[in-house]
Amino acid sequence: MQGPVCPVPLRHDEQIVLGHGSGGSMTHNLVRNLFYAAFDNAPLLAGDDSALLDLPAGGRLALTTDSHIVAPLFFPGGDIGRLAVCGTVNDLAMVGARPLGLTAGFILEEGLLIATLQGVIESMRLAAEEAGIRILAGDTKVVERGKGDGLFINTSGLGWVPPGREISGKNAQPGDAVLLTGPIGDHGIAVLTARGGLALESDVLSDVAPLNRLVEALLSSEPEVHVLRDPTRGGVATALNEIARQSGVAIQLDETGIPVNPCVESACELLGLDPLYVANEGKALIVLPEARAEAAIKVLRSLRYGEGSVQIGVVRAGPAGRVLMRTAIGGTRLVDTLAGEMLPRIC
Amino acid sequence: MKYLSEYRDASLTRAVLEEIGRTARQPWVIMEICGGQTHAIVRHGLDQLLPREIELVHGPGCPVCVTPLELIDKALAIASRPEVIFASFGDMLRVPGSGQDLFHVRAAGGDVRVVYSPLDAVRLARENPERQVVFFAIGFETTAPANAMAAVQARALGLRNFSLLVSQVRVPPAIRAILSSPGNRVQGFLAAGHVSAVMGYWEYPPLAREFGVPIVVTGFEPLDLVQGILRTVQLLEAGQAHVENAYSRAVTEAGNQPAQAVIRQVFEECDRAWRGIGTISMSGWRLRSEYADLDAEHRFDVSGIQPIESPECIAGLVLQGRKKPSDCAAFGGLCTPEHPLGATMVSSEGACAAYYRYGRFADTAA
Fold first, then answer.
1. Across residues B9-28, what is the average pLDDT?
2. What gap in Å lies between CA B19 and CA A278, rounded to an integer?
3. CA of residue A269 relative to chain centroid, distance
4. How far is A119 from chain B (nearest CA, A)?
């Protein structure tokens, strides 16, 4: 006999039912069999209300959180699980923090296949392993069918910034170079084409990847990095505008120098999108003194996920807060932030 | 990218720009009709590279911008109905009606969906037989064939839950209206390449002759645009009011015959109101009487709508090429893409949006 806690009389091991969110034995089994098995580590398995960590002496703590919603859950090159781990790991890496651990909150929609959840969890395990980070605490809630999009994941990350590291969006200075670690727009186009409904097929893979090892290697040979930023939602254009505003400087780009994969370029042309505004999940923008640019690019190109690194622009004193681009044919235009979603054009 | 990078070749483009400089011996005012061309010109910075003699003014060829306010208000009313799935091109969602836009309607519970093709709206109607699917069939000659095809398919499938809210407009009557207006300054036209790919350019010679203006069919890439401008300037300098095709890789004189046939099958010419400009005689298409049952304006009672246009907005003058977006007191202040007063600030083909997005502000002058 089942207890009154769980309203579901039959075993449900194929799909998520409301009972999985009841806090009773079904919840317990789900957590133990899926999450503990995959994210196996001592602070997590201690099973207390909080994971306990020993901290390095000195330096600063970095804390970040990000909620992940994506349709479809699995897309070429990644899935919501890899995205949830990499997104938060990268947010830590972009302030120069070494990740200490992640938390993961899952909002599961009634009817979600357990096999799907397992696939996502496995992917999180692999991404965490690649990044060298542990998932230390978690939470699961189940919402009624129709009240969620299959699966939402929130991840929070805790990191440690060693003493002496001062990386911030407000640190860009005139005379700095702006580097980019590879071609832009892959993630956004991969997800868009995987979503279907566009009758558009492509071989584009999402670039979703953890960048903490790349950042760590870069900083160990180029400690003078002023700004790091991952150009996710809103793309490179939005990230650079944030930096220009935070630092009170202008950023001057060269249109011919911005790498875009041919497939992404074609898809953007067809759909009326500008790759500068399309999301990336495995790229970093790096601002550092121009004298160090060449050496930094050399280091980056020797690293995984940094093979395509190039300089795309320079930082100037003004006009403050603006991103300008020299067009291929020699004109100049502003690269602004978008008001809202990028909307496909009519004709 | 093949067939694209060739037409963005910087050295070729600069060579043509120099040729324009050598050719132009006096000031000329040239209008590019199409909003897509306006955006390409500003995005690539061509306007900054042209010789001083050449002034480009921006035309009314932005389908979102010229869709009348009354029709947008009707769209909002229809989209708010619980039984309706309202399908639209993405561009239309942020266009302000008298009070709100389709995003507001969606947030308030209206079922508003972005489709890339009107045929996707037909599919929605098949998949949702218990709902009324309404497609917002707006645009120039470029969207007309696919919109007409949606009507044909819906009819063939016997769909009773599909209808079209139509505001189709045509380029040649707009050119005539601009040239006939008392304040007209336009001396030559770049005809829109995409429109011409559908319609050909057989409609232009009578206009060119009657008003004594050259009309050059022009594409959208930098090299296409400067070629079109060069030919227009050459014709102007030679005093020749000819029609030429500088976009022959996509356009023939007769145009796309099957596309024109399906337009004729479904639509008939009618007077149309253009937002900001007013009614232009026989400047649009409406559903023929055989297809009247697919007309959303008949299916849903949306009469009695009283549209209210923002008093600050000068979109009408911008669309007629009589003002530049930066001439507007509201530009970039009261009127921004976040809070547009007029459709020209919204659309990816609107001139105000192009000026705003690519930074035609004083402090960004290079």
1. 93
2. 37
3. 25
4. 30
